[in-house]
Amino acid sequence: MIELRPGLWHWQAPHPEWNAEQRWPREVSSYAVDDGTHLILIDPQTVPKELLALAEDRVPVVLLTAPWHERDTRILVERLGAAVYAPRPDTAADLMAKFHVTAEQAGDGSPDLTWLRERNTEAHFYGAGDRLPIGVEAFLGREHNDLVLWMPSIRAVIAGDTLVDFGPQSGGGFGINPWLRGDVTREEVVKRLRPLLALPVEFVLPPHGAPTDLAALERALT
After folding, report:
1. Do the beta carbons of residue 64 and residue 85 sit within 8 Å?
2. What is each CA distance from 136 to 14, 41, 47, 130, in whole angstroms?
């Protein structure tokens, strides 16, 4: 675990559902922010024990950039009583539009966060354009529930799966995820995210790859 600045941490851990057929490396990135009241765990996987201890003195919150990034969310809800902020999982109609599957194949929609939706009490679902009470603004990314977040308290863009660095095997470095769905184009994604370049960005925090900066964001959006 690395402290990027006081109250902002980054760590990487193996994703338990990874296999050799995945397009992304096994190691995924997670982040934590201590704002003095909340401990905000962003796309958390295998949270370090030091942060779990800190959570006892803070209001624990899990912040997901996409519903399929639930990773260790259920464990943290059960262990810490954490509240969860997440984009809504795909409906059957969403799956049909994104993957061009049939209604039968789409079934009842994505199983992401089903356990959380059934509980209802800890779930706070949000979308593009929302401003969350934990000091986060959501921007539309690759798709309606793959969001890019702006957290002004730490001057950080939290990139979701829209902006990634899949490592040497991808050959592209940090940039817009080439895996676009639902007929969305790279140009559309760039247009959605250009307002970020006017913000006082110090950190860019991708869940795939290491933390980077405004210069990398500018290159990605040209």
Report:
1. yes
2. 27, 13, 21, 8
pLDDT of 94: 85
The rounded distance, in Å, linking the Cα atoms of 12 and 29 is: 4
Token pair 């765990």 in the structure block, residue? 41
The pair of three-digit structure tokens given for residue 118, joined into one six-digit string: 């059934």
Residue 214: exposure state from Cβ atoms within 10 A (0-12, 13-18, ≥19) = middle
What size, in residues, is the chain? Answer: 222
Whole-model pTM: value is: 0.94
DSSP for 135-184?
TEEEEEEEETTEEEEEEGGGTEEE-TTTEE---TTTSS-SEE-S---TT-
Domain ranges of the chain: 2-220
Looking at residues 23-49, what average pLDDT do you find? 94
The maximal CA–CA distance of the chain, rounded, in angstroms, is 50
Which CATH class, in words, describes the domain spanning 2-220?
alpha beta
Contact yes or no for 125/107 (Cβ under 8 A): no
Rg of the chain, C-alpha, whole Å: 17
**184-191 LR contacts (CB < 8 Å, sep 24+):** 184/142, 184/143, 189/141, 189/142, 189/162, 190/221
